[in-house]
Amino acid sequence: MANDREVLREIWDGKLPVCFQLDQDEITEIQQPDPFYVMVPRLSYFPLVTDKRLCEAHYMSCVKEADMLKHRGQVMSTMQKKDHNQLWLGLQNDKFDQFWAINRRLMESHGDQDGFKHIPLRIYSDDGTFVQRLISPKNNDGSRKTLKQMLLELYPNKSEGN
Amino acid sequence: MYLGLEFKTLSAVPHFLWAVGGDRQIYLHVHGLEIPIRVKEESYENERWLPLEGFSGRLLPTDRYHFSTYDGTKDRSIDHIRLPSMAWQWEGDWQLELTLDGEPLDHDGWSYAIDFPAQFYPTKNWKSCVRRRKWIRYRKYSAMNSWCAIAPLHKDPTQEPFIDVSIGGNQMPYAPVGSLSVWGSYCTQSCYVQSRSPTGLVWVLLCSGRAMIRKGVTKDCPTGEIWLDVKSPNDTKLSVVSVGYNSVWAVSTDTRVWFRKGIDGTAAGVSETAAVGNSWLEVTGNMVHVSVGPNDQVFAVGEMDKCIYWRSGVAPNDPTGKRWRLIQAPMHLSRTSSLSSFNSTAPQSKHRSLTTLNEKTELKSNINLCNSWEESHSAPIEHTLPIKASAETTTDTKPDNSKNTGNIENIDLTGKSYETTLKNPRAWSPVRSVGSVVGMEAHPESDSSVFDIDSGLYYDDEVSQAAWGTCETMWSFVEAGACNIDPLQVPHWFSDTQNAINTDLISKWRIEILDNLKSRNSYPNIDLSVYGVAIEEKGWTRSCESRLLNVHGTFEDCILTVHWHSSENSGTMSVFNPDGATIKFILNLSEITSIITSSEPGCPRLTISVPNQFKDPIKIQFTSEMEQEEWLNTLIGIVAQINKLSGKPSTDSVWVVTNQGEILNWDPASSSLNCKMNKEGLYTKEIQVFGKDVIAGFTTILHNNFPPGSILKLSGCLHDVIDRFTINLLGPEIKKQRHKVQSEIDNIPFHFNPRFDQLAVVCNTKIFNSWGVEERYELPFIAGQEFSIIILCKQEGFQVIVNKKLLCLFEHRLSPDSIASVEVLGPLKLYEMEYSCTAPIVGPEEMVWRLMGGHLRRVESVGVVVWGIAHDHTAWVYTGGWGGGPLKGLGSNEGIHPMTDTQTYCVYENQRWNPLMGYTSTGLPTDRHMWSDITGKHKRTREHTKLLNRHWHWISEWIIDYNTPGGVDSDGWQYATDFPAPYHSKKLFTDCVRRRRWYRRAQLNTEGPWIRAGNTALVDISLWANNENVTVWAITLGGDALYRGGVTPSTPAGTNWQHVNSPQALTAVSTYNNILWVVGRKRRALLQRRHYNRKSNRWRLIEAPKFSFMFGEKTTSTIGVKVISLTEGIAWAVLYNGAIAIRSAVTRDQPEGQRWEHVTEGDTRFKQVSAGEREVWAVCAAGAVARRRGLATEMPAGAAWQFVLHVGAHHVSATGSRL
């Protein structure tokens, strides 16, 4: 749903209120330091807390890999370096329009293709483990796959409601 | 519609479906035409003056028939003119034509001449030896939207059982618009099935599986020359063949699909290889039937599943396409009746798709090329009116008896004729004598429950929800001849699934997800205010290398940079020199009033208007189209955000269409936000004087003029040494042709002149450059002191208050509505200047024009309803959205639909005769280019004609235009004695030059907030609204007047066209308050008709405008009217010479008005005018948009034009504006 701007915007605007408190063991002064409060964007806080260069390299390779699975790499290969830059800077600086101006191309169907070839997917469980699979966006009969159908495919043993 | 009749085969072009019925007879279904097919029968009654008897019907033996054709060669006795078949009905009786070239004739309609053939004049004189008058009668095709049996060849229909019929030739190269040809085959000897293409190419298949083609089918020889054998694919027999424009597809008996390589539709008539092709290519898939559309798109019926497939990816460079895609084509059954129908169930998306699908090629091709508004380059020209009424051209397509040979010689007037007194039109059978099983039980026009009103796709929501069900269908036959789908914008229901994108947006699950997303960010237990932001909202900068148009008219390199701070809602645009350090200029983004594209092929450009800073707009050329589009999108988004513009504009909006087809909107409601009303009901504008020293003079425009109630406040300080100072309230500037064009001001309604030497204040008025009687008052000013002056405009005069004391009341000698500006002459220092008015004060520099999206040629607004007409004459209705196409993502997706538009490019091939070689492309050194535009001044070649941008694509090759105005010979040439001279079709002894026109059509695919309304081609439209009642009148390409039924603010597209007869072909229309004016094609005549009830059909001629002086030249003849716009009490008109005239005192009791008045002053020529209730706007010939200032009840023509937008406009509509 790369064209549903409203939903995209809502997802993008998701923020996490974070409160940092210094560990008691780390406090060396008599005065207790104030906790530090910050609102971080859910989608793009990663570059804030890790090495930016590392983060960028990892992100770009993920995007390339995903494009390979979605469009056989046809979109990324036609993009210029400045597009790649804009994509990353949009994410890093929390610029929705800047990011989506480029990302839209990655999320649309390409050429004659009707939708994505595959959707790369990773589902985390509560215990921190994850399942990573390649999902076809269509069912065998050609209809679009719903989230529920996809989950059943990944977890055939789990019955509804679990 | 299921009629209890079974068909063997079908063959279709847009609007016309031919079929062979189960009874082996041929049937025709004419559908989807929104206006009736009418044919005008004409007969000239000729008389000669005889000495004793006077004028008499007894003519000389050498003379023409008593009743004849125009040229007198054929007998046209009116009692012998019969209806060609029972499918036709007369519309009224024979009538006399009472005008000659738009001039009224006396009631007998005679016109006189010295002899046949000679010039005929409306009045008789002593040498008038002959006279003639014209009888006209219309006949109408009455079997519309119903099956009509075609009369068989023989009395006994079993003698000729038809097995196949095929229609095509609607795009036959070089043939006139609207020609069609029909081939039929009947089984007397060897059975065959056959197919023909839009280009006229005919392929047949014999029962033995052999294929043959007909060689030499051209526009001059529609039946072709001989049959040629085509080798079938090895070891198989062909069972179905279908011919498209540049392709032939076939299916063999073993259900294999074959594509024929090497077919070239344009050359097929003259080249054997282009018609035969060179080899068969097998295409994957097993099909039982295949059909090719006019644009080579392929449809087929699957062998196993009997479903309908569409071949995706078929394009000129890949004619065999990529793969077969299943089309959702469930048959819909009505539960209320047993009729099956083509209707579908998903209201918006599908209906729209169907409308797109049913877009008629006929409509696109119904263009006749002629340049009426000459343009000096080979850019697309407007599709202007056909010379022939299109009603006639369309009916050319209606053969009433098909023969088994080609037949474009259509309507057989003297042949089988049927008498037409139909006693009960609801129950008639189209074929009287011969054995037909089908009789029409219902009449298309009286029984709408069976017949769809609009384009055969009338749609009723409620019925569809409740009463239609679907069933799986096994298909056996598919016919795509009328199906011109755009492979790039495939209708939604082509997709494999039922789910269309748009239905997702309103579905419950999506709204639920959205609501959950919205609520997830609220944390009731946390005080969010203490949380800092992780990433600071910074402004962003965007920069690119580009080129800027300089004062010399050339482009120079620059670096364009925009800095934008979204949260502060402000930003700047800077233009740097290529070094990146030195700045050319910098401007505030809030000063931009419009951004439009102004590209030329290969040169993507934007034009940005910043009237505060620059008189002329800035033009920037970008390195690529993509870059230009991104900048356009970015800048428009920013300007809209600064000015808080989004979504649907208010009903007071003024709409402008640019030469590039872009649509601009100025919404006064948003502009007046900056100009608030105070408690006295006044709007005040502070004029920036910056405390500057005024010695040479300071002039500022008073945008609302200075009507009673206006106030001007000034304060400042006089110089120590002062002789006099002046405040002038000036009249309008008038451009005058002296030794060069210059602006002058003839009138000064109020001259306020304190004179320190005479210790007096002198007040006066200058009228036509001469001063009136002075009025003197005691001087209240002291040199070197501060002062304040208030000038109030009262009903009776100007009240002047100096330093809070009343000085004088100067009675009006000229209307204060004509005051256009104020001038202050020093020496003094101005501190403040304030201008107040009873209406919002909005100057051109505050009018922000928003690009709305879409591509049109004209827009007409009545506030609540907005209609547009595209370059290809299709009608569109504004949906209330914003964006689409290059503006993607600016507004919401709501109301944005795919749009297409078509334009025609023309080049002229010029040749000169020389004694050795005859006509060659070697001209004299002084000659025009041998390939040029219409003026000959610019070189234009076919090879170098480029499309404007990547959204355009060619939809035809270069084709010789055989319909060039003036007539052409068999090779398309037209001759003249020299360039430029009038061209004619026949080569004369004196002709030294010749030319011919080539044209090529291009199509644009875009998106915009517009939706198609009907499929009738229109040239003009006019709207009027009174609360909920919206009146829409239009003029078709053929010159017919139409009234749109069912238009309301909630259903802006209305439901159907109602045709209103008019005595001549029309070109323009305007309606206001139940008064309707139209302009006839003969330009001179202006017709008017009251329509208190629309059934009445009285037209009245209005006297033609006649002025003795225009543009400083003496004129003697009347000048034709080109554009009209009616408003309260007045009709504005643009004449053919570009002047503007008004017709005053137009009321409901006297709708023809009283007299013409010439409005235009100076030498500005106009191309269009649009009058609203309180606003009159016009587009001048050079493309600037002007607003008429000083309109008042006592000055209905206003005072002066104020130019507000210099962007190369084509059309303006201010009819909705009620400022």
From TrEMBL, chain A:
Localisation: Preautophagosomal structure membrane
UniProt keyword Cell wall biogenesis/degradation, yes or no: no
One GO CC annotation: Atg12-Atg5-Atg16 complex
Membrane association type: Peripheral membrane protein
Segments forming domain Autophagy protein ATG5 alpha-helical bundle region: 54-108
BP-aspect Gene Ontology terms: autophagy of mitochondrion; cellular response to nitrogen starvation; piecemeal microautophagy of the nucleus; vacuole organization
Domain Autophagy protein ATG5 UblB: 118-158
Record carries keyword Ubl conjugation: yes
Pfam families given in the database record: ATG5_HBR (PF20637), ATG5_UblB (PF04106)
Family affiliation: Belongs to the ATG5 family.
Assembly and oligomerization: Conjugated with ATG12.
Protein known as: Autophagy protein 5
Species this chain originates from: Eumeta variegata (Bagworm moth)
Designated gene of the protein: Atg5
UniProtKB/TrEMBL annotation, chain B:
Keyword Repeat among UniProt keywords: yes
Stretches for region Disordered: 337-358, 381-412
Record's GO cellular component terms: bounding membrane of organelle; cytoplasm
SMART domains, per the entry: DysFC (SM00694), DysFN (SM00693), Gal-bind_lectin (SM00908), GLECT (SM00276), TECPR (SM00706)
Domain Galectin: 698-836
Keywords per UniProt: Lectin, Repeat
Gene3D superfamilies tied to this protein: 2.60.120.200
Listed InterPro entries: Beta-propeller_rpt_TECPR, ConA-like_dom_sf, Galectin_CRD, Peroxin/Ferlin, TECPR1-like_DysF, Tectonin_beta-prop
GO terms for MF: carbohydrate binding
Pfam families to which the protein is assigned, alphabetical: Gal-bind_lectin, Hyd_WA, Pex24p, Tectonin
Matching SUPFAM superfamilies: Concanavalin A-like lectins/glucanases
Family annotation (PANTHER family): DYSFERLIN-RELATED, TECTONIN BETA-PROPELLER REPEAT-CONTAINING PROTEIN 1
Family statement drawn from the similarity comment of this UniProt entry: Belongs to the TECPR1 family.
Protein's name in the database: Tectonin beta-propeller repeat-containing protein
Organism annotation: Eumeta variegata (Bagworm moth)
Lineage, opening ranks: Eukaryota, Metazoa, Ecdysozoa, Arthropoda, Hexapoda
